[in-house]
Amino acid sequence: MRRLCLSLFLICAAIESGHAQQEPTREHLAPSGWEDSYHDIHYSPVVRIGDRVIISGIPAAVGDTDEAKVRWAFQQMQAHLATVGATMADVVELQSFHVARDHEEFRRVVEPVLKVHREFFKDHYPAWTAVGTTALFSKGAPMEIRAEAIIGSGARPKADIAKPKKQ
């Protein structure tokens, strides 16, 4: 009986330690220059849960033109991803927020984003939702972008999406 109880105890302990090793961990990170976001504004620029990476909104805030500002935001996204060993190829979803008063202005302000997006995502495009808004937290930023990535998912992407035939 004692031997049976000891065996059951060891089995339960082994199962419990196995569960503890499989539980996801959550890391809060900030690339160089973004530490104030965490300490002063109280948000995490990068959160990693297992292989899932969440990049908080990055304002298009540096540059002389809207296109340059957008390119800077995408470059910052690359730096954010690099803090956890991910790349732009690992990005599975984007959300962008654009300052615009109406549909026509929205279409105009999204044009530089489309151009820069094509530079960073040549194929195997992430899911993307673009939202118009009246204001962003960063004054003067024409847009803000956030992303989600799965580390390693860009290694062997697959896209079996036929091109529509032109009529």
Automatic annotation (TrEMBL):
InterPro entries assigned to the protein according to its UniProt record, in alphabetical order: RutC-like_sf, YjgF/YER057c/UK114
Keyword Signal appears in the UniProt entry: yes
A Pfam family recorded for this sequence: Ribonuc_L-PSP
Keyword match rRNA processing: no
Signal peptide: 1-20
This protein's UniProt keywords: Signal
Domain of life: Bacteria
Protein name: RidA family protein
Organism from which the protein derives: Lysobacter arenosi
